[in-house]
Design goal:
With 69 residues, the protein is mainly β. Helices cover 0% and strands 45% of the residues. The strands form two sheets. Strands 1-2-5 form a three-stranded antiparallel beta sheet, with no helix packed on it. A two-stranded antiparallel ribbon has the order 3-4. A hairpin with a 2-residue loop joins strand 1 and strand 2. The chain is elongated, with a radius of gyration of 18 Å.
């Protein structure tokens, strides 16, 4: 994609791999692990003009607990 309407800067395409694992410990307790950008690939997430280009987030893991009652 182009960074702006000037068509002077082109951003390369990218593919990001995300994954999630769930474990139900009991009927009322669920664990969830999410990993974003599993391959830790560097990519450009967005651009607001030719010189304001943002990198995407590096690998990130989130652990959640869901409790029912």
């Amino acid at each position: 994609m182009y960074a702006s309407t000037s068509n002077a800067v082109t951003l390369p395409g990218f593919m990001r791999v995300d994954t999630a694992v769930y474990y139900r410990q009991s009927e009322d307790l669920l664990w969830q692990l999410n990993i974003e950008n599993l391959t830790d690939k560097r990519y450009y997430a967005s651009a607001h003009n030719d010189n304001n280009i943002s990198f995407g987030a590096p690998r990130e893991a989130k652990l959640s607990v869901h409790i029912g009652f």
